[in-house]
Structure formats: structure tokens, C-alpha cells
Amino acid sequence: MSITITIAETAQELGLRAAAKIADLLNQAIEARGEARIILSTGASQFETMEALTQQAVDWSKVEMFHLDEYVELGESHIASFRKYLKERFVSKVNLKAAHFVNGEGDVQKNIAALSAELRRKVVDVGVIGIGENAHIAFNDPPADFETDLAYKVVELDERCKQQQVGEGWFKSLKDVPRQAVTMCPRQIMACRHVVSSVPHAVKAEAVYNTITRPVDPMVPATLLKTHPDWNLFIDINSASKLVALA
């Protein structure tokens, strides 16, 4: 278990520092093996990191990208689609070797099986894993299933998770948020060689505090990250506020 916590003054500084760390880890993998694999998370908390990452000196033609989650039966044209998010904010801006998306439309179980097989062909070097307001990782809301060996599965979204999606402006109301999503499972996330978490903004202060101060607990899913051999947590002064007050 190894946790490195970096506190930045602003979300922009956080994004730059997290992106530099991600790039360094990718470059190490490329130097060692001639290729690298990355998992990317989405959402409003990842804006600064995603933008900074596209500006990093990485040979993206040697990098394969996977992503964490997607709503069930939400079209890619919808503003909240994570496929749309990643294509617009990342994939269209770098020359990736390959991009593998979670598809929650059509035959979802067939899509999951194909993506899981592709993901498990080789180890993932860097998992960029955000933390939700309810401390979820991906869409593993509390109580998260820490035991499943599945790479991805369909889950029910809890009310606080749905409220976060409304609060970030992806949906007009709670009733508009899909009931289900496809998510990468916790043990699969933990299989990444390195994990980098970008968690800015005051709305994440409670989740950050609970993650750091509480024991590993499915009711606080992000606490699982503390058991990873190389977890790099980037927070800003706002998301760190409860920790600073504790100190």
C-alpha cells in the first residue's frame, strides 16, 4: 500500500500536476514495453486533468485507452454520454493507438463481454479514477461490490449519485438520469499498475475526508484505493478542506 497525496491551490494546478504524473507513468511504460494502456474517467471533476493531459509529451500512437462507465440506453448524442465526452475532450485531440468504449446500448451483455476480453488481454498501466460525491469509484455506488471478479457489470445508480449528475448539469432533473449504468468493477480497477485520482472542488470534500479517514468499507467505495500499491491522489484546497481542518 502506497498513497501519495498532492494538494494544489486550484483545480487548474491540480489538473496540470495530475496530467504530468499520468504522462510520466505512460512514458515509463512505453520506454519499458513499447506501449501503454490507460483507463480514463469522466465527469466535471476531470475537465482540468483531461485538458492538461492532451498537452503532455506522450507518444499517443503507442497508447490504448479504455474507459470506466456509461449509462444504460443513453444515446451517444446526449450531453451526458461519456462516449461523447471522451471523444470530444480527449480522443479527437490525440493520436491514440486504439480507444475502447463502454457501450450501454443494444445488447449490453454482449458489449460487456467483448470489452472485458479486450481489457484483460494485457495489464493496464494507469487507471485515472475519480471519486464521486458519495465516494463512488466509477459507478460503484455504496455498498460497492468489492468481491466480484467481473471486469464490468450493470449496476443501479443510487439517489446521491443521480443528484450529482443533475448538479453537474448533465440532466435537468433526477427523473431524467438513467436508472442503470455499466461500470468497471472495483477489483478490475485495482488491477491497474498505477492509479491516479483527480478530485477537485468543495463538493468532493466530504468524500475525500471519508476516504482518507475511514477504514476500507464498501459503504465508502473509494477507501479501497488505499490498498493499492501505488495510489496518487490529487486534491485542491477546496476538496482538501475537511482534511486541513482535521490537521
Automatic annotation (TrEMBL):
<dbReference type="InterPro" id="IPR037171">
    <property type="entry name" value="NagB/RpiA_transferase-like"/>
</dbReference>
<feature type="domain" description="Glucosamine/galactosamine-6-phosphate isomerase">
    <location>
        <begin position="10"/>
        <end position="226"/>
    </location>
</feature>
<dbReference type="InterPro" id="IPR006148">
    <property type="entry name" value="Glc/Gal-6P_isomerase"/>
</dbReference>
<keyword id="KW-0378">Hydrolase</keyword>
<dbReference type="InterPro" id="IPR004547">
    <property type="entry name" value="Glucosamine6P_isomerase"/>
</dbReference>
<dbReference type="Pfam" id="PF01182">
    <property type="entry name" value="Glucosamine_iso"/>
</dbReference>
<dbReference type="GO" id="GO:0017057">
    <property type="term" value="F:6-phosphogluconolactonase activity"/>
</dbReference>
<protein>
    <submittedName>
        <fullName>6-phosphogluconolactonase</fullName>
        <ecNumber>3.1.1.31</ecNumber>
    </submittedName>
</protein>
